[in-house]
Prior knowledge:
The complex is a heterodimer. Chain A is mainly α. Chain A has helices spanning 7-34, 51-57, 60-91, 98-106, 113-123, 130-139, 149-177, 181-189, 194-222, 226-232, 243-252, 257-288; strands spanning 37-38, 46-47. Chain B contains 14 helices and no strands. The longest helix of chain B is centred in the first third of the chain and has 33 residues, at 65-97. Chain B starts with a helix and ends with a helix. The interface between A and B is large, with 100 and 101 residues.
Amino acid sequence: MFEDKRWLPTLMVSPVLLLLIVMIGIPSIFVAWLSLTESTLGAQSTFVGLDNYRQIFSDRIFWRATINTFVIVNVVVYAELIIAMLLALALNCKFFGKGLIFSILIAPYAVSEVSAVVMWQYAFEPDVGTFNLLLEQLFGIDFNWSRNPFHGLTLIAILSIWIHLPFTLIILYSAISTVPEDLKSAARIEGATERQVFRLVTFRIIAPAVLIALMFRYIFAMRLFSEAWLLTEGGPARLTEVLGIYLFRSAFRYFDFGPAAATGIAMQFLSLLVASFYLYRLYKGMKANG
Amino acid sequence: MAERYLTIALRFFIIGLGVLWSAFPIYMVVSSSFKTHIDIFAVPSKFLFTPTLDNYRQLLSDWPEFLDGLLNSLIITTGATLLTAIVSLLAGYAYSRYQSRMLTASAFFMILVRMLPPLVVTIPLFPIINWLELNDTHAILIVLYAAFFVSLSTWILKTFIDQIPRELEEAAEVEGASLMQRLIKIILPLSVHGMVAACVFVVVFSWNEYMFALIFTSSAAKTAPLVLAEISGSLEGVQWGVLFAAATLQLAPILIFVLLVQKYIVTGLTAGAVKG
């Protein structure tokens, strides 16, 4: 229908593709080469084969960071999923002031990692923070996140959940609000309990959205860096490091780009692994459409 | 009937907890920024207090670079948003109106790169950006921020442009309107909502971003979150108030923005994340 200029669509998408290729595509591939070399600032790089991988895989701190990342990612993603699901179900009815409530619930999306760290540091400041005093008086817990690595990781997880809950909530809430009321009432007339209505009707309809929200959250949660860096810098004694911090420290504190690149490749591999089913489905869909 | 009331009670209990969870940390910091340092750590926390602007005054005298940080953030956010908006509109239009093998392949590529962790690209980019002497400039952050959001924005705009009838454009084409004219006079006005939905994410991201700013800026282009982190890092005892004032100033504009465009965040996320 439009002018038959075959180069036109290519021209129109080229700025976007150029940005993506130059800033993300080429660097992401170039990292693979860097991971096989030894390089630092201002020095000629030399090819070292798989030495960098050997180095990180035999580094206790790398494995500690990997385990920390694995645990935090799973805790954060599933905690968000459960909280967001409960909230989305609770919100799925009409009541006065719902718009305002929804605004408050997604407000943390506007908060930067830095400000969020300030907020939660204040609440959990040893000896004086509101939550710390509560924990101490109610449960006798001395929650000292700057000294106790388990407490540190807990606070990093809480902070991550707090910042990212709006994303999961929005996706689940929109999905749940698309479930037709008739279908649910029909199930109720047939004598289904509320729990059955959720399991057999609502959940089946929102399952694809839940799966995609999960995948995106897994991928984004694995990138965890800022909150953890700002809160503990990986300390004490590098016990609260996550993969992002391990990479950052190798690259920008020790200027040892080889091991940093090897860590980067590991992170890319994990991200693509999680995304693979989604990408595969998308690829098949696109192929089918032409 | 009793069961019904129980469900309603449970509903509001969950929502109440959710509201408390989301709002309490924000409320604490914002309200404490107007407290004297004696009131800040008063036990129990004071809900009624005489507000003071002392913390803000002290912030401006102790940390003049915080204002520069806010200005840098504003410049970078504006730049990244404009860049994202322009290139995504062009690409979103092409994906909506044309079909080709190349477009399909590139659409797949766009989604693929969204999965790659941003931190990883900094390793090869760091020496190159240093070599090009682009570190500590607004431009490098603008380009980086845009690069990580163009695929989402393009996808959102595509779904919006899909809904604009082609007939409108065909009519204009018959009257001799060029592609550029059609884009500016037909597509742009009709996809204003799409533009907002496509841009909110890059606005919020650019205003708040910490990691790239930490790696690629040092003084001239230092953004507000970075200065805020510095204030936090240099904290000694009584300066919490100053930190809260800075956090409030960094947060307030973007929080108001998010609340105003909330509706677009919902449509944008559902269009971009679920379908794209």
